[in-house]
């Protein structure tokens, strides 16, 4: 999307030294730009008959829930372990140091549902690959995996092979 | 809102023994009900010229961001300490055991902006009282504090005195 980069703030050394963090809050606090981004996503997906949008805690909820409501789709959150109160499916995946576990409610959507997975940023792709695994466990039909920002150098797409992947802006 | 309760799942002993947890994911994964809830909020606020919706991590993001987009307003997240990358204002508040700190970006909205604060659930009101303090620090003009669910017995409204408080459903 043209001109989007100037509304995304980059912050050096966050959350730790050597990391350049892309901050979407400057996009969200501009009502016209936030609307424009959501309109682009709406146009991309309105003809796809999406049943449910699945999004990853916490920034993914912002774009995912706004889009779900706009499309008239359902919304299902993926959260860190222990946060969802009902029966869950979980996936544990490796991080640079250690590992992490994410979960989805077992009744998040019906088997065969057309699912769009949304997050704010694609970096190494580890979390999103785990999210894809969760959606597949529940037999969701993944229409696309959608990001606002993609950090191309980190090759996150390699972890999402065989799936359509979309990003609005690439660094 | 009529008939809403039957779409909110109650889960005993979550996150710990003795707590009855109200789970909104069963509302969110019903596309018609999710839309209906957002339509009610839209009707309530569309004439109020809201500049920005401020919402509390993480479930608050779901309702807050969807509503912001629907109203054409900006969105600003309140997060746990250390999660927001830019200069923040912070408030520390007491919990049953210990304390917690929440933050907002200093440029979340302009002084004088008409702000609606959104969260999924009003319990004791401690977190929302801290959120109100954050919005006041940035000189926001609070139009209302809005919840999907209110647990009336816990008297959270007492911590929000002098502010308009709205909830869609009361237990």
Describe what you observe in this structure.
The structure is a homodimer of 171-residue chains. Helix content of chain A is 26%, strand content 35%. Chain A is of the alpha/beta class. The first copy, chain A, has one domain (49-170): Rossmann fold. A seven-stranded mixed beta sheet of chain A has the order 5-6-4-3-7-8-9, sandwiched between helices. Chain A binds chain B through residues 9, 11, 14-15, 21, 23, 25-26, 28-31, 34-35, 38, 51-52, 57-59, 61-63, 65-66, 68-70, 72-77, 79, 82-86, 105, 107-109, and chain B through 9, 11, 14-15, 21, 23, 25-26, 28-31, 34-35, 38, 51-52, 57-59, 61-63, 65-66, 68-70, 72-77, 79, 82-86, 105, 107-109.
How many strand segments of chain A?
9
What count of helical segments of chain A does DSSP give?
4
Order of strands, main sheet of chain A, comes to 5-6-4-3-7-8-9
**Could you say which structural class the secondary elements and strand pairing of chain A correspond to?**
alpha/beta
Question: Alpha-carbon distance between the termini of chain A?
Answer: 12 Å
Major sheet summary line of chain A? 7 strands, mixed
Oligomer: homodimer
Uncertain residue ranges of chain A? none
| Main interface: chain pair and counts | A-B, 44 and 44 residues
Overall geometry of chain A: globular
For the CA atoms, what is the radius of gyration of chain A? 16 Å
Q: Topology as H/E string of chain A?
A: EEHHEHEEEEHEE
Could you please say which CATH topology of chain A applies here?
Answer: Rossmann fold
CATH class designation of chain A: Alpha Beta
Mean pLDDT of chain A: 97
């Amino acid at each position: 999307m043209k001109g989007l980069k100037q509304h995304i703030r980059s912050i050096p050394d966050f959350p730790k030294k050597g990391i350049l963090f892309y901050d979407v809050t400057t996009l969200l606090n501009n009502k016209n730009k936030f609307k424009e981004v959501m309109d682009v996503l709406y146009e991309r997906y309105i003809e796809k008959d999406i049943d449910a949008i699945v999004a990853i805690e916490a920034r993914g909820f912002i774009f995912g829930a706004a889009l779900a409501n706009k499309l008239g789709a359902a919304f299902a959150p993926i959260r860190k372990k222990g946060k969802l109160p009902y029966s869950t499916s979980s996936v544990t995946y490796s991080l640079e140091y250690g590992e992490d576990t994410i979960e989805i409610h077992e009744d998040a959507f019906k088997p065969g549902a057309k699912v769009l997975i949304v997050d704010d940023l694609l970096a190494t792709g580890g979390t999103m690959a785990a999210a894809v695994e969760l959606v597949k466990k529940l037999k969701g039909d993944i229409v696309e995996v959608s990001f606002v920002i993609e950090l191309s150098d980190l090759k996150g797409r390699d972890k999402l092979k065989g799936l359509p992947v979309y990003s609005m802006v690439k660094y």
